[in-house]
Inverse folding.
């Protein structure tokens, strides 16, 4: 009981004036820097390093040859990430075994897809021939 009375008595020292509140008031122009306003958001396009990592993931997932699998990729330098998923069975083009794939690209609030094709090289490694923005048909 004594603790309750002491707590209640000391609580009176923290009474706020009517113009104060538990939260700090900010002027409309104040920016803390922790959150980028949407109007200032940057449109992220894949960098060459991002594309190189996506191509490497495509080559890896196609080399493994497992069906219905995906290979993630990530670029810590840009914050971009995604995954690569083979789309079709192998086919022959210009005398080489090839496969199509779809790659996701995520960076910040930007999400997009890229489509590509890779063909098996002489050493058995898949070489990405094309990697372009995905266009729905």
């Amino acid at each position: 009981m004594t603790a309750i009375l002491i707590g209640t008595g000391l609580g009176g020292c923290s009474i706020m004036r009517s113009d104060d509140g538990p939260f700090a008031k900010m002027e409309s122009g104040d920016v803390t820097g922790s959150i980028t306003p949407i109007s200032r958001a940057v449109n992220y396009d894949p960098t060459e390093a991002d594309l190189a990592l996506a191509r490497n993931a495509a080559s890896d997932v196609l080399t493994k040859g497992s069906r219905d699998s995906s290979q993630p990729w990530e670029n810590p330098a840009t914050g971009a990430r995604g995954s690569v998923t083979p789309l079709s069975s192998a086919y022959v083009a210009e005398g080489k075994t090839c496969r199509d794939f779809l790659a996701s690209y995520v960076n910040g609030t930007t999400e997009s897809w890229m489509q590509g094709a890779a063909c098996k090289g002489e050493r058995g490694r898949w070489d990405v021939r094309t990697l372009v923005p995905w266009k729905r048909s």
